[in-house]
Each structure stands twice: as C-alpha cells, then as structure tokens.
Amino acid sequence: MTKYKPVSIPSNAFTFCRISLALLVWVSYLFHSKGLLVVVFFLFLFSAILKIKKAPMIVIYANTIEKLFKSKAEVVNEPALYFAHLVGTSFSALSLVFLYLINEQAGWILVLIFALLKSISALGFCPAAKLYDCSNNDNCCAFAKKALKKNVR
Question: What's the domain range around 18?
Fold first, then answer.
C-alpha cells in the first residue's frame, strides 16, 4: 500500500465533508435513527471505494457551493483518508450489526462513541488518519515513539 500520495481538494469541501458526516452521526444518535446511520455507512463506503477526490460529500460541495465561493486547495494524503474512510465504514457497520442483530442498547453506545470520534475528526484531527500516518511514516507522538523504541530493544 502506498504510504503517501498527495491529492489536492478544495479546503471548504473537505471541511464540509468532515462536519456534515459528524452531524449525521450525531443526529442518528440523538433521534435513534437507524436509517440515517445506514446512510452514513454508505457515505463512508462510497468515500472509501471512490477515494477522496470523488467522495460523495466532496463532489456535492465541489459541484454546488464551491462554484459560488471558491476556497483554497488543500493537499491531503489519499491513503490515510482511504484508511480513515474504511475505519468509518467499519465502525458504522459494527454499530448497525449491534443495533439490528445483537443488542440495541450496546449499538447506541457504539454510535455515541462513533459520534465523539467523528466530532474530533470534524475539528480537523482525524484519529484514523493519524493512526495510519503513525504506523506508516514513523510520524507518531512522543509517547508512541518511546513505546516503539522500548519494544525494539
């Protein structure tokens, strides 16, 4: 797998994608809407399949609001965001499996955790992308670097 592949996307489209997905997960949780969580699952799935430049929320924004209000381009790491979208797909799928098949209460707890993680992502710090970068580029935080060095010795 490629460690780093720079891709340029409109900055505001990227922000729109992060915030709108976080809001969709929160609305799903607050109103206990399984159907909305299914929509989130498919948005993440298609974002992973199509990659970031053709992700549904990026395309929607780029073909509407971005045409009226241009934003600067932002360079992102495509493989890291692919991984992040796979994590979002997996988290929403796991939540749906719990909601429909295992234990609904546990499923809503998973959705709450997912909403909290997506909120962190919406603020610009994507834990899944950081995990990808850390595992592939030796780009870890100081604590992780110390732990890695101890394990090497």
Answer: 7-124
Summarised one tens digit per residue, pLDDT across range 121-142 is 888 777 776 666 677 765 565 5
Tens digit of pLDDT for each residue in 38-71?
999 999 999 999 998 999 999 999 999 988 988 8
CA distance 19 to 24: 9
Total of domains in the chain:
1
- DSSP codes, 49-83: HH-GGG-HHHHHHHTTHHHHS---EEEEEHHHHHH
Quick one: which of 82, 114, 83 has its CA closest to 97?
A: 114
The whole-angstrom separation of Cα 134 and Cα 112 is 25
